[in-house]
Amino acid sequence: MPSTKKSSVSRRVPDKKLEVTGKRVSNSSRKSSKAKILPPPPPEPEEEEGDSEEESEEEVVDGSDDEEEGEAFGEDGYDSGHSSEFYDSAAEDDEEEDGEEDEEEEDEDDDGFEDQGSDSDDDGDDELQMIETHTPPPPPAFSKSKTNPRSAVVQREIEKLHDSATVGVNQALLHIDDLSSDDEEGNNTIGRVPLHWYDEYDHIGYDTSGGKVMKGPGESAANDGVEDIFKSLDDKLSASDKNKFTIYDALNGKEVTLTPREIEVIRRIQSGAYAHPEHNANPDYIDYYSSKKIQVGFNSNRVEPKSRFQPSKWEALQVRRLLKRLKDGKIDMDYLTGKKKSMQEKKESDDKPKEMWRGDEEDELLNRKGPTHIAAAKVKTPGTEESYNPPAEYIPTEDELKKWDELDVEDRPYGLLVPKKHPNLRSVGAYEHAVRERFERCLDLYLAPREMKRRLNIDPESLVPQLPKARDLKPYPTVRCMKYVTPSLEDGTMPKIRALSVSPDGQWLATGAEDGFVRLWEVGTGRLLRSWDLREKEGEGEGAVNCVAFNPNPNHHVLLASSATNCYIISTGVGNAEDSELTTALLSVASSGGGGVLSEKVKKAVKWEKFDRGGRKTLSKHAAVEGAVAKLSFNGTIATEGVKWHEKGDYFLTLTPSTGASCVLIHQLSKGSSQQPFGKKREVSAVEFHGSKPFLFVAGDGVVRIYHLVKQTMVKKLYPNCKYVTSMSLHGTGDHLILGTLDRKTIWFDLDLSDRPYKTMKYHEKAIRGVRFSKKYPLMATCADDGHVNVFHSTVYDDLMRNPLIVPVKVIRAHHQVGRLGATAIAWHPKLPWIFTAGADGATILWQDI
């Protein structure tokens, strides 16, 4: 049979199976061990009988092999029952030139394929069996013909066909998921230790349980065991074992059988190819730029600008903004990752009930972007007058109907509607003005302008500060305890009490009445002890006492009283022997008419005179003098609360608002002298000494000025924002000041905080007449012409960071109004939480905390 010529472009595909039964790999000859797979010869034309017979025989063989291959090959890619077979090509009729080239290629490919662990080249005992590999025949279109020789395109298609067939076989042999060595079992635990260390022993290591791993049979300490291994292999070799390739694992002392897949991987690694046949080292080229449309024009060849290859500044700005908002807490990671669209979203549990009408729909419309939506005004709901059977008072009479006809529709009580009475609902007809009213409604919606009025959804209770309860701030006066009854006038009316003052020890009470008398009361019993008539002529004239003040020094029993244009110095005549001597020494100069050391300006403003209306017995046997001992005459009337003592008890001041620059004068009782601190004319309404510093508070012209008496300079200005100050009181610490004004305001100043009011309170309905701080308790009180006395809890803290606590705790309805006056004066007890009140009704009342 003539041999078929092979094409010179055919190539060998290394995809044969190797199975070796032995402990080493030996190649008997290069041609037998390294087989090549060639494509099957194409069928010859029918004219040649030999070729047709040969082709028919090959087709029969190929068909049988294909059927067996389809039945035997499973999911693992090879026949488990015929694992000893190897696939190889049956091309033996190559031309001589092609044979020589193939042999050269085989020699190059076989370099390094020989097992490095074997030194034997024995050709007689070959352990590799080549089995013919049947590849599918090429399509009929590629059949060889004498008239149509193969072209280069046909040859490339044949090569691709053989490559795909070879890869399919290799993929059947190899498993991609079984490429890891983690599942290999190893009993020896000695690690990477040279095995020749165990040459002198009968074991080669230790297993995981600590037992020895013995050497294989035939191995000893003096022999490396190579000859014994081959001998044992030859003995064990049988017909069933020839199809297996086993090697000896010296580390673990056991035999390992290699699978066809492992043999194929070893062969590919030794030949320098990729270990995995699935890997395509030369993939088809893909033209990635073929899908781009080529623009032809003036700018088609323009080079891309550099800015397109640099990071975007706009994106960097957006990133910085997002990081800033993330740092400030305005957004979170859920917003950045897109889990929620807005930061206003709140996750509500499905268990909680949801409101159908929240009431803030209008606020949502206002806050949304775009033009502001203004809802239309709602139509007035029907009332009783629109009932089909209204009450009789809703049905108009004939006279009322005539009056309604004369009025405009807008001025009528019910507009176009005239209430009528129907016996039942079926008798009610159509409303005659329905079309007109609907038309006017449409005109209102279309033409009438709308204005949005914001509705503040604020809880009124949230605006009220959280103050402590009044019962937790006791003690403070709540109950009327005692009333001091003033003798009535000749006509039977009670004289108005203009002023009152309490002694420093809290035992005595002095009141000044409109009848010109200064009365001394005993606080504990309410007994009237003394009455001093300060009128010009005793028993004649009218000179209302508008101010009284006890000396704040408990050792000086002296009382000041002002009436009209005079100020009287009164000795109360109470006290022990020591206090009486101090009081007599203090009044010695004043009782003799003053010291006479006065400047020309002061002599015009004030005059010291001796005043003696003695003849009465003193209250204390130790007292030498009782009653008024001196009088100071001024050019103007002394104001209400126009006499104030200094805390030391030697200096006092007087206020006469109508005398210009000499309205404020400071007097020294021990020397009987006076001085004028101001040289300019000012309008002054109230004055007060500082308790511990040489400061003088002067209220007038809408401001409160603070002067330093030693340096003779103005220290500070306070702006109360009021019309007229009627009363002034300084806290015991000297850092807080309260003012009472005619416009019903009580103004609190924190001198260390600001020159503006810390708090302005307006609890009275009429002008305030007096404000007072308690010297011992955190209490404050105000009185006004409405007859009420308001008591406040006022705690001042030593910590400058805490604001004063001001809480109204009690409203005392102390007096009733007489004319335009109500409660005229108040005074705190110096040692107890008691308060004394006086009013225009002639009553003087003590209120206690019972």
From TrEMBL:
WD repeats, residue ranges: 490-531
Sample GO molecular function, one term: ribonucleoprotein complex binding
GO cellular component: nucleoplasm; PeBoW complex; preribosome, large subunit precursor
Record localization: Nucleus, Nucleolus; Nucleus, Nucleoplasm
Organism superkingdom: Eukaryota
Keywords: Nucleus, Repeat, Ribosome biogenesis, rRNA processing, WD repeat
Function: Required for maturation of ribosomal RNAs and formation of the large ribosomal subunit.
Record's protein name: Ribosome biogenesis protein BOP1 homolog
Organism field: Triparma retinervis
Species lineage: Eukaryota, Sar, Stramenopiles, Ochrophyta, Bolidophyceae
